[in-house]
Design a protein that fits this description.
binds zinc ion, 64 residues, 20% helix, alpha+beta, Ribosomal Protein L24e, Chain: T, two-stranded antiparallel sheet, single chain, 4 strands
C-alpha cells in the first residue's frame, strides 16, 4: 500500500520509497525516479514544476 507519485520530469509513477531523489519546490515535495531526472528538474524547474501538465509532451511551451 505504498503511495505513488508522479515524477514531474519523465511522468513516470514511482513509489515514494523508491524515489532516487527528492526536491522541495514551492512548498511541494517532488520525487524523482533517478538522479538524472532530479538533475533535469534542478536545471530547469519552471519547465517541470507545473503539475497541470500531465501529457509529458511539448505542447503549450514557448511562453516564458
Ligand atoms: Zn524520471
Amino acid at each position: 500500500m505504498a503511495d505513488t507519485v508522479k515524477d514531474p520530469v519523465c511522468g513516470m509513477d514511482i513509489r515514494i520509497e523508491d524515489a532516487a531523489a527528492t526536491e522541495v519546490h514551492e512548498g511541494r515535495t517532488l520525487h524523482f525516479c533517478s538522479k538524472g531526472c532530479h538533475q533535469a528538474f534542478v536545471g530547469d524547474p519552471h519547465r517541470y514544476g507545473h503539475p497541470g501538465t500531465e501529457h509529458g509532451g511539448h505542447e503549450g511551451h514557448g511562453h516564458h
